Amino acid sequence: MKTTLHLKLNGRDAALEVAPHARLLDVLRDVAGLTGAKEGCGEGECGACTVLVDGRAVNSCLFPALEAEGRSVVTIEGLAGAQGGLSSLQQAFVQEGGAQCGFCTPGMVMSAAALLSANRDPSDDEIRDALVGNLCRCTGYAQIVASIRAAAGKAGAP
Amino acid sequence: MGYDYIRPASLEQALSLAAQGESALIAGGTDLLVALHKKKRPAPGRLISIRSLPELAGIRDEGARLRIGAAVPLADLLAHPAQARLPALAKALGVMGSRQIRNVATLGGTLCNASPGADAAPPLLALGAGVELAGPAGRRTLDLAEFFRGPGRTALQPGEIMTAVLVPWPGAGTQSHFLRRSRVAMDIATVSLAACFGLTNNRLSGVRLAAGAVAPVPLRLRATETFLEGKALTDETLAEAAKLARADVAPISDLRGTAWYRRELVGVFLARALRAGNGGKP
Amino acid sequence: MSNPHFVGVETARPDAADKVSGRTQYIHDLAVPGMLWGAIRFSDHAHARIKHVDTSAAEKLPGVEAVITGYNTPEVRIGFVRDNFALKRDKVRQFRDEIAAVAARDPETARAAAALVRVEYEPLPGVFSLQEALAPGAVLVHETDAKGRPRKDNLVPVRFAHHSGDLEAGKRASKHIVEGEYRVPLIQQSCMGTAGCIASFDTRGNLTLIAKTQIPFLAQKDFNRALGALGLEGRNTRVVVPALGGGFGTGLDTHAYEYIAMLLAWRTGRPVKILYNREEEFAYLSPRQSATARIRQGCDANGKLTFREIEVTQDNGAYTSWGATFPSVMLVPATSLYRVQNISFESKIVYTNNTYCQAMRGYGNPEITWPIESSMDELAELAGLDPVEMRLLNSNQPGETTPMGLKITTCGLQECLERTAAGLNWKENRGKRRNVKRGFGLAGLINVAGGGKIYRSDGSGIILKPDDYGNVNVSYGGVEMGQGLHSVLALTIADTLGVRPEQVIVNQTDTSTCPWDVGTHASRGAFMACNAAVMAARKLKARLLEWAEEIFPVEVEEALAKARKHPGFKEPDFDWRGNCRPGCFELSDGILTIKGAPAVPELQVDFARLLRAIHFRRQGGGTTFAEEAFYEPPTELPDWEKGIGNMSATYAFGAQGVEVEVDEDTGEVKILRLVAAHDVGRVLNPQTLKGQIYGGLAQGIGYALYEEVLTDKGRILNPGFTDYKLPTAVEMGFPIDVQLVQTNDPEGPFGAKGVGEPGLVPTAPAIANAVYDAVGVRIRELPITPEKVLKALQEKRRR
User: Fold this and answer.
1) Same-domain status, A63 and A92
2) What is the rounded end-to-end Cα distance, in angstroms, of chain A?
3) Within this chain, do residues A42 and A107 fall inside the same structural domain, yes or no?
4) Which residues on chain A are in Cβ contact (under 8 Å) with C720?
5) Exposure class string for B238-256: b at 16+ Cβ within 10 A, else e
6) Separation of alpha carbons C337 and B107, rounded Å
């Protein structure tokens, strides 16, 4: 019944036993024990489950786990710098108040990471456009946008 | 749930698996998996993934037309240089879902899903696009306008797979515009409209119009097109065309808007698209 | 403390690093060994008699451990009027009524088994609107009250009213009178983290509930009562609060799913987790009430308000939560937003067969500020006054007592109005941009900001417990929901005690270790916690400095003795021995020294060293210690039927103004910029404070423009984010100018007022007023959708 899924998970080779119909989100959380990605809606609207597959942001709730075969998957746990320190993007979220209740935060940070890897110096509009698939109910997005702007090396008034 | 998930290596394999029945095709899966997860459709015995089939990949300029592999993710299409020549399509692709969705949702998938509000459909219809289908009986091509048969229903025969979308390059001087209303940025369209036309000395030619979310299928506004062909772009023409366009559509009232509002907007969007021909705000 | 180092300085939150790295644990991430999963079978009808429940098929499903119904479990009543039950027996009154529940090895099996429960119903006609429910001879949602006495109508038995002055005289004195009916929709709190809990019992019958709650201690009380129903009188509930994933009022009541988890855990003897998915959250968790308000108010020839008359009717749904008491908060703006003397306020809370509702941020205030502030603009127009002038003319002032008996201590309303207007270049812009369909609108607010007394105590306890390593562990019974409570607690304690904020560690909220707190609501969290913290930290500091008299000389002598071994050491030129008195010590940044002493290491005792010395090296035996303080604000529990009582220790004021552009062809309203001026008393942490305002604004804008739970005869039609739209980052992509007005409140900790709710209170009327300014149509029903605007524009053109 179960199949072995081979992938590069947060930079390391992994082999995980998964049901063929499993969603990547469930495999990450329940099999790999990486609970950073959250299920906020299960229908690709809220983005709390966002992870990177081959460097691109995807909703892991809508991603069949078996499609990750042979690919690289990075979760929020894999974003941290050396010795478990925070990446500069995560640091910026801390410094600028980008997290409140924090439930949307892992997904927000992953979407921001995908944006910044493709566009090192995004405008505010580009940042906001890149976040339409990430809902937040606490922050009104202002300090999230400021965090990403700061991480892009263009700190300004929020 | 509990279906099997198979990833064939070739189109041939996929077709033979699809011919065995008891299965459904999955490409990006952004619509299908939600439907399965919410039990809005019964789980098939297995899903056949066509996401990575080489025959469904790639974007190729074939001279007179652009051939877009059915499994090309929307994000790849959006990033392709060809979009500069297809501004209405680019605009529609840019508002479809989120980046996360566009990174996996495919052009073929959004058409085969046959949602009345699929944003890619009106620009493709207005551009006169066709689709290429492969099945047990071989390949065939079909005008996209013939492909949609109803909400969630298409001309695909059992065992058939869409392999490509074929977009004829617009002629020199052809403009294309896309307008859309949704409640927030991340939303299914309440109304969308695409227009392709030429405008020389204020006279319209080659008018092709299509609208989404205003009928059971994304549709061409044929009566309005006929009326506009060869007409001078005047306020009177626009008013009459808006009236015709409102009659060309058959919207319903749903969570996103009433039939009344959708009709109003079709007229407004048509007038704006045509005015954009003279540099107006679309 | 007069010169704080940390309070008022932009500081990163202590919980941020875990949140950005995915380490924070929400109920979704928690599991307990041996845990089963619960699932609930909800009603298929909005109103029906239950004829028969057959659980046999569900019981047979492999992996199912228990199936319970109202027939095979003790009756557990819920809610402050006790009209709800954990599991329903006689009839169902809404689509989400709980009929049966399953405990199984995994959530899929539990849900599958719940679907196998067969229920036979006798459908009944229902009431789904206020009109239907209030009509003579209407079908009764509840045929009897909690005591079994027959009921004769669909009114919830709670009354909130206020009548003061002479209404008729007020009307006679009016030159202008406006009247209007305003509506607000049903909306969903939309916490990003859905609801869930884990219930487990020890062998003696004590319950541990890991709960997504904002009221751990009232929940403990509720659950201890429920234990009684299980025959476990005298047993205790321990409520443990995980990271919340958003509260916004959803945690103000205890919920049927929590009692069901308790019943399943008791039945199976194993821990049981219930976790809602998003669709369930929408369909089975209580949203914010819809309501209709009729308002009439008038002014004299000069624009002075002469009277205000309001009638509110609120759709309660089928059962009663604390949300039914929204009118208790509506009383505040109804009687006290602007100076008005002759007032009538009446409210009705009506049972229907719709989903029952509960609290949400603002708690009645946005609902009532919407009509008041829309109507203020209408009145200003009639009186020929500028809307800002009209408001300034009637603005509340410091030192006044309002008709409700609210004692206004500090009041920044006037300054907020002025700064908002200035931020929008009001005089040059308002009323002058109609040619380009741009409009300017503004609205003011009053909100409780020093607690909101609706319970016999509105207090908060706190315990500060230092350890051997220089940390101060804080046990506080309120809830960090994301608002930044732990951040401001750390800053407040650090400054008051004299340590660094990173030395302050706020523990997880747990009723077994934290002192009592009424709950985190009513913008009270920071105000109460920090007031209690200041009290406790002062006590702690006083004790430490007393002990320092003995400790400090010993530690300094030791340090000096060591230092003297180094050649070239110079004795400090300071008489430290003569100044070893509590009044002369200085504890700051975690260093104990003597005021005026040179900054040499030998004359400084590190906080950790001081604590260890007290623990281990005191003459006559060391000690461990902690300090507790309980802050009860100087407020009154109002007389609700009279609507009189000073329910908060201080009040927040504010104003928000917007510039909008209206598309006359499509009816779309686009916000171009927004100014939010808020009287916050004093800023504790600018970052978390602004976070509260930005977040409140986004919810206010959702309420104003986008959000509505749609229903059809009690069934929710849009249970998810595909169909229920929250503003995204794109909708919020306009410039926001936050102006913080600091009135330095004497009762506030460091002068601070509560700020949790005000951000969303005046947003909708400010936008509606701006739409009117842009295109001349007044929308009286939220949300202000393009359809409503277009329809109104077309009607206006026809006239």
Assistant:
1) no
2) 52
3) no
4) 41, 43, 45
5) beebbebbbebbebeebeb
6) 55
Considering the domain architecture, whether residues C388 and C479 belong to the same structural domain is answered as no
Provide the 8-state DSSP code for A1.
-
| Cα separation, C439 vs C430, whole angstroms | 7
- Average confidence score pLDDT of chain C: 97
Section B138-149 average pLDDT: 97
Does the pLDDT of residue B147 top 60, yes or no? yes
> Is the peptide bond between C783 and the residue preceding it cis, with omega within 30 degrees of 0?
yes
Distance CA(C106)–CA(C64), nearest Å, equals: 9
C635 and C456 in contact (C-beta within 8 Å)?
A: no
Q: How many domains does chain B have?
A: 2
Q: Which residues contact C136 (CB under 8 A, 6 or more apart)?
A: none
Q: 């407020």: which residue's tokens?
A: C635
Q: CB neighbours (10 Å) of residue C727?
A: 29
| Among chain C residues, CA nearest to B259 | C787
**Residues across chain B:** 282
Residue type, C511: T
**Residue positions counted in chain C:** 799
Q: For residues C393 and C302, what is the distance between their CA atoms, to the nearest angstrom?
A: 9
**Residue that terminates a domain, selected from C631, C658, C686:** C631
Residues C514, C516, C522: CA angle, nearest 5 degrees = 115
pTM: 0.97
Residue that terminates a domain, selected from C616, C631, C646: C631
Helix (H, G, I), strand (E, B) or coil at A64: strand
- In B10-143, at which residue ranges do the beta strands (DSSP E only) sit? 23-26, 46-49, 59-61, 65-69, 130-135, 138-143
Residues B13 and B54 in one domain: yes
Q: Which residues pair with C281 in a beta bridge?
A: none
CATH code for the domain of A61: 3.10.20.30
Largest CA distance in chain B: 62
pLDDT, averaged per 10 consecutive residues of chain C (799 residues), comes to 81 97 97 98 98 98 98 96 96 98 97 98 98 97 95 96 98 98 98 98 98 98 97 97 97 98 98 98 98 98 98 98 96 98 98 98 98 98 98 98 98 98 97 93 98 94 97 98 97 98 97 97 97 98 96 96 94 93 95 96 96 91 94 97 98 98 98 98 98 98 98 97 98 98 98 98 98 98 98 95
Q: How far is CA C346 from the centre of its chain?
A: 24
Distances (CA, A) of B178 to B101, B249, C655: 20, 17, 39
Name the nearest CA neighbour of B228 among B217, B244, B211. B244
Write out pLDDT tens, residues C741-750. 999 999 999 9
* SS3 state of residue B255: coil
CA distance A102 to chain C (A): 5
Partner C contacted by B185 (CB < 8 A):
yes
Beta strands at A12-18 and A50-53: parallel, antiparallel or unpaired:
unpaired
Closest CB to B5: pick one of A20, A62, A114: A20
Domain encompassing residue B187: 181-276
Using the Cβ of B64 and the Cβ atoms of chain C, whether some distance falls under 8 Å is answered with no
Which DSSP state fits C614? I
Could you tell me the two tokens for C598? 């040179």
Cα(C615)–Cα(C618) distance, integer angstroms: 7
Whether B242 maps to a domain, the answer reads yes
ipTM of the complex: 0.97
Domain that residue C89 falls in = 31-124+195-275
| B33 reaches A (C-beta below 8 A) | yes
The subunits that touch chain C, with at least 3 C-beta pairs less than 8 Å apart, are: A, B
Query: Does A156 map to a domain?
Result: no
Locus of tokens 């189109």 = B11
Q: Are C708 and C186 in contact (CB under 8 A)?
A: yes
Cα–Cα distance between C475 and C496 in angstroms, integer? 17
Cα C555 from Cα C576, distance rounded (Å): 12
pLDDT for A138 beyond 50: yes
Residue A80: the pLDDT is 76
